[in-house]
User: What shape does this take?
Amino acid sequence: MDLTVRVKRFNPEAEPRQPYWQDFPISIDENATVLDTLIHIREMVDGTLSLRCSCRSAICGSCAMRINGHAGLACKTKASDAMDKDGMIKVEPAGNMPVVKDLVVNLDLFWRKIVQVEPFLKPQGPEPEAEYVVPNEAMMHLSGVTACIMCGACVSDCTVLEVDPNFLGPAALAKAYRFTADPRDGDGEGVSRERLRKLSDYGGMWDCTRCGECVQACPKGVAPMDRIMALREQAIKAGFDNNNGARHTEAFTESVGHSGSLNELQLPVKTVGITNIPALLGFLPVGLRALTHGKLPPLVHKNIANVEFVRKLHHKLEEHQPEK
Amino acid sequence: MKYAFYPGCVSRGGCPELYPAAKLICQRLGIELEEMPAAACCGAGVMQEKNQLFGDTLNARTMAMAEKKGLGLMTICSTCQGVMAQANHRMKSDSAYLEKINSNLAEEGLHYSGGVQPKHLLWILIEDYGLDKLMPLVTKPLRGLRLAPFYGCYIVRPTEALGIEEHPERQTSLETLIAALGATVIDFEGKTRCCGFPILTINEKNSMAMVGKHTSEAKDLGADAMVTPCPLCHLNLDGYQPKAASQAHRPIGLPILHLPQIIGLAMGISPKELGLQRHIVNTKPLLVKLGAGG
Ligand code: SF4
Ligand code: SF4
Ligand code: FES
Assistant: This one.
């Protein structure tokens, strides 16, 4: 099959030090992966093309890059699937990390964040005589998150990291969940209080926008965003709810549980806290602008029809929340 | 053509111009809408992080109401669309979960089979209504207007919940529609990224950085306006654009239009009826360019 691979290239030693696109028209087997096309180019066309790869079978996590604008593993993506109708595949280095050369990025930031969440068991209770014994069921649900191969695809496409390198990011937060959800970690009840406290800080679990990019990018089904949502649930349950993120979630659920719909006027107030005068004043300019444009939500919040049923349901399901 | 209509909270709350605009264009298009006054909020993914079962049950309840009427379900918000599709996906892949949800719905006399596919107006127009039927109604094509599409996360990800595999055309639906209405599509990197709204009250600096990044990117590429099928994106991209601009130390001034508004304009409906005067970023220059008056 004939196709063109458009590669975003960068050579730090060449002048000007600017990335540029280069097209490689090639002919390759129907079953080739995107990685095969790149290796073909490196071996047959241009030996200066730099990329990382090792296992070629979606195990080692070396070959994460952006393919047609979205991160994934080059060795797990078939060229015939990635090609557009004109036979073109666009390949760029992973995002949110500095480019070393061509498709090779510097993963320091990725690893720093993994180290930051202390990716090892920290049990607090008394040590058992022999090994820790845990029931199978208590570990099975962790198989998804332990499948992470540290490829960095999620970090590449994270919308928050794009504007704020301080954010812990999807891979590290998913890794943190791997421990907070482990019954051996934390206190005697298996609650990882210390971790949850730290993860509730600025740059932690509440900074995620729930954009889903990491779920889409992850080649291993780790679904980092879903783990972050689970972390939030754990944190609220463990009592770390004195922050805007937790208050926002609680106030939102309260509002819907009470009236069936969202009270948009009350939500920001309850989120920053009714006593937080500076933050409340901060809403004023936006609120005034909305008011003069006839855009403010209705001042009297109406209930939906048959709201009684929703209230009862809320009551019932809030009381019987499943445990960790 | 008739749908059970789920307008969501924001189209009647923070973006009160959206609900009447959507109803108006549907009436002109001959799409009949039946509302469900007892339908609750979808939870916007926020409620789901505290109590997923409660959120999913409320969405199953809404879909059961549509099912009872024997109608398809129409949404006008990317977030409602995605949150409901995700709830559906969970219920479909776990029959015990669906059963548990149904046991809670029984008291209200409702039962959900799992068979409703919520559909955004954007998809309905392309897949069910058909552009060939829409075209004759486009009496004032948006010629010369340069519009940048902005989808909103929930209508593009995760693809497996949104039926993108069976409907790959959904990934370019907004561009398709913009072009069909006669306008020029301004393609830009940010079109499927996050608007930052979910963290507005949690990390405003980051949220504003996202607004600033996407709106200035489109503006610098020559867009006259941005179009979104998501009122939550609209709240942030329009309502907070002045703040984002001051954080970015640059002027932006990019009007943000709701999807039904561009359809309405192309059908010759007056900007006033479509609520364009209610936007925070001034839409007048855009209307002057279009020759539609302010
Ligand atoms: S869902 Fe959260 S962690 Fe994942 S990419 Fe989006 S912002 Fe980043
Ligand atoms: S979570 Fe997925 S995408 Fe992120 S590093 Fe692990 S395997 Fe890669
Ligand atoms: S080469 Fe190992 S994951 Fe692609």
Q: What stands out?
A: The pocket of FE2/S2 (inorganic) cluster (ligand 3) is lined by residues A 53-56, 58-63, 73, 75 (CB under 6 Å). The longest strand of chain B covers residues 2-6.
